[in-house]
TrEMBL record:
Domain (HTH gntR-type) ranges: 21-89
SMART domains: HTH_GNTR
Residue span of region Disordered: 91-116
Organism in which the protein naturally occurs: Actinoplanes octamycinicus
Protein's name in the database: GntR family transcriptional regulator/MocR family aminotransferase
């Protein structure tokens, strides 16, 4: 049994075990555990011995003894005049945390190639703070006390203008609903479909989150093949579904761009069957090669629900996105967004509106597009140049986005390769993480946070991780 006492002065939870040891030993152990579990982090200022003793109902000697012992162990340091703090080198066994992708956080020293992870260290903090300051101080921008369910009118106007000019969608602000991102938008769409109905087609491979959201709403999921032209529309037709979820601009994770032929076929199918196409406008902002491609909703809005997000362009944790419904479904979708939970912070909404209106968003996109392109070029070149990875076959999906797909030898065990890579300091994700049905082995490599100078090192580590499984492939190849 441990007695929980929250120190009121510092809101520090001390779990003091109720056992026969002297109190100073129990306190030492409790603080050591708090550091080990990451509840007390490097630099954290501990309460003075007087304050903590008063809170715990013990003498100051008990607290001083504990602090001295922990300082001797290297967990705490005491400086004249600045109190007792957790040292920078105090090692925390952090609580297990799950990344947005659903995969465990790799150790900090790893090269992290999880796809879908933008370089959040490049968040445009100064410009964002300027916009936030503006929103908080200019009466013309003052946030409404009760934000409208569809989102701040100013942001809806700004997003509509952005979608008209950058994505070619004929929208005005009444057509835009602000969401907490693509997954939130998808949850709303799923609520408007009938669980016992015809089901939803999803890309296989595809981002698992959107199909999970649909499945959680009780919808039947129908996997559909993806090839170099994007989703197989004939297979969608055969699946006899009420909706299809796809990423036409940059299919995840194959990187296919939905061809003009398939775009037309998909819209024809939706029109003929009164189905809806849920367009995940993923990675549309990061197109490096070829002409920019407009959104599917730019061709027809009647059967397309367009979902956009600032998760990749600004920060995965911002939880800010938008949904453009077909006009006939607007009312139902707005109700569904409202009941799917609270929307994003009104301050973030207005800050983002100001950020876009002042041109800071476009500047940030130009800057990051250039940086990501360099990272992509470095990784592609390094993989092609290395004698092992260069023989694996063409990397896929490189024209846009923040990741690529590297085929593995046909008999390679993806999971074994990924776990060997983890041992070599590289976190990568196997293609099977995104597939419903078995597919040839491949690695999905995100380069959003890979410094170009590390690309060759990554190619070497992949080659090393492949060695056992690559051998048969190399022998048969000559
Ligand atoms: C394929 C795909 N689409 C969209 C998103 C953005 O989702 P959200 O806006 O919910 O963060 C992600 C995020 O990882 C993704 O992988």
């Amino acid at each position: 049994m441990a007695a929980d006492r929250t120190n009121r002065a510092t809101a520090l939870l001390i779990e003091l075990p109720e056992d026969s040891r002297p109190m100073h030993e129990r306190l030492t152990g409790a603080i050591r555990t708090a550091i080990a579990r990451g509840r007390l982090t490097p630099g954290h200022l501990l309460p003075s011995s007087r304050t903590l003793a008063a809170e715990l109902g013990c003498s100051r000697w008990v607290v001083n003894e504990a602090y001295v012992q922990l300082a001797a162990e290297g967990h705490l340091e005491t400086r004249q005049g600045s109190g007792t703090r957790v040292t920078a080198c105090a090692t925390a066994r952090t609580e297990p945390s799950r990344a947005e992708s659903g995969d465990p956080e790799p150790p900090a020293s790893h090269v992290d190639l999880r796809p879908g992870a933008p370089d959040v260290s490049g968040f445009p903090a100064a410009a964002w703070l300027r916009s936030l300051h503006h929103v908080l101080t200019d009466p013309a921008w003052s946030p409404p006390v009760f934000p409208p369910p569809a989102g701040a009118p100013r942001l809806r106007q700004t997003v509509a203008a952005y979608l008209r000019r950058a994505r070619g969608i004929a929208v005005d602000s009444d057509d835009v609903i602000i969401t907490c991102g693509t997954s939130h938008g998808m949850a709303a769409v799923a609520r408007t479909l009938t669980p016992a109905g015809p089901g939803v087609a999803v890309e296989d491979p595809g981002w698992f989150r959107l199909r999970e959201v649909a499945a959680a709403a009780g919808l039947r999921i129908e996997p559909v093949t993806v090839d170099a032209e994007g989703i197989d529309v004939e297979a969608v037709r055969r699946a006899e579904v009420a909706a299809v979820i796809c990423a036409p601009a940059h299919q995840f994770p194959t990187g296919a761009l939905l061809s003009p032929r398939r775009r037309r076929a998909l819209l024809t199918w939706a029109l003929e069957t009164s189905a809806i196409v849920v367009e995940d406008d993923y990675d549309a902002e990061f197109r490096y090669d070829g002409r920019p491609v407009g959104a599917l909703a730019g061709l027809s809005r009647d059967h397309v629900v367009h979902l956009g997000s600032a998760s990749k362009t600004l920060h995965t944790g911002l939880r800010l996105g938008w949904l453009v419904p077909p006009p006939a479904r607007r009312r139902a979708l707005l109700a569904a967004v409202e009941t799917a939970g609270a929307g994003p912070s009104i301050l973030d909404q207005l800050t983002f509106a100001h950020f876009v209106e002042t041109g800071a968003y476009d500047r940030h996109l130009r800057h990051t597009r250039k940086a990501y392109r360099l990272r992509r070029d470095a990784l592609v070149t390094a993989l092609q140049r290395h004698k092992v990875t260069g023989r694996l076959g063409a990397v896929q999906g490189i024209a846009a986005g923040l990741h690529l797909t590297l085929p593995l030898p046909p008999r390679a065990d993806e999971h074994a390769v990924v776990s060997r890579l983890a041992g070599l300091g590289v976190t990568a994700i196997p293609l099977s993480r995104y597939t419903i049905r078995p597919q040839p082995p491949a690695l999905v490599l995100g380069y959003g946070r890979l410094p170009p100078s590390r690309a060759e090192w990554v190619a070497m580590r992949i080659a090393e991780a492949l060695r056992p499984s690559a051998r048969p492939h190399q022998l048969s190849g000559g």
